[in-house]
Amino acid sequence: MPADIWTLPAPSRVFVDSVNMRHILRWRPPQAACNTTVLFSVQFQGEFELLVKNGTWMDVFDCQQIPFAHCDLSFEVGSDSDYDLQVRAQCGSEVSNWTKLGSPFNRRNTQLTVPEMKVKTAGDTLQVLMEEFPLSASIKLTVWRKDEQQVSPIPSFFHYDIFIICPFFITVRAHIFLFQKVEYSLTPEQPMLHIEGLHEGKVYCVRAQLMLYSGVRSSSTRPHCVLVTGPEIAAWRTPTTVTVTLIIMLGLLFAVFWSVIHCRPGSCKNFLKKKSLPDSLNVKVIPMVEQAHNEEFWEPKPQVLNSDSV
């Protein structure tokens, strides 16, 4: 069509803002008076549309006649091929010409940022939680003990068990842990890592890196180091136990002293009244009298006389 048909100026400064596999097409609205809101529509053309569909341009479903100067193309840009993009403006019945992106866009050129992560300890367990990251990426975690960071890379005896106890995180139980750096891999389906059986009183460090399946990597995070405190004991348990025990002891002492001071003889006698024994236990004791034997028992003994005495 002749250029003079397009009475509305076209959008300008079209570019793609792509970070962590989220691709946002942005542009500058036309500088023209419009009695209504200026609306925008976006189209794309990938390798499939170019070769198989004979150069067909496809409408971006969520970006047709929108009042915003940006469009999320993360779903449409679904492969590592090149994509051509274009946008046009509309004011009432007036429609502008299409403004194409200066050069084809490829998602492999996305800018990868340092992933967000949370590291904490619970007893002898190290917990690492990764924040949102692309579905087409994974996280490489490097874990080591801080005082052993400079140990030579000679392999040492190291044994650990891995348990996938939940579809959202991985648990690792270490038996002799980290004489060298150990790497783990997290996915969007399993963004959490638990490492159990760590040494009490030691400092462990974690570093993360975002990796695309195409091989593109982000820079690594700074080491995030935490102290392992050992078996988890609730911080409130010890002072609470001491306080409750002290209150109970003071209450008992107060009750004893109050009873001693305020207890009258008659009242105390009633409280301390001796109960009589039941008949079954009330048995009379008959003393046994032993007769004295004062008389000596005399038994005659035979005597033998010799011949001289006769």
Automatic annotation (TrEMBL):
MF term (GO), any: interleukin-20 binding
Official protein name in the record: Cytokine receptor family member B16
Membrane-traversing stretches: 242-261
UniProt entry tagged with the keyword NADP: no
Organism field: Oryzias latipes (Japanese rice fish)
GO cellular component terms given for this protein: plasma membrane
GO BP term, pick one: cytokine-mediated signaling pathway
UniProt keywords, alphabetically: Membrane, Transmembrane, Transmembrane helix
Cross-referenced Pfam families: Tissue_fac (PF01108)
Signal peptide: none
Annotated ranges, domain Fibronectin type-III: 4-98
Superkingdom classification of source: Eukaryota
Encoding gene, per UniProt annotation: crfb16
Keyword Glycoprotein: no
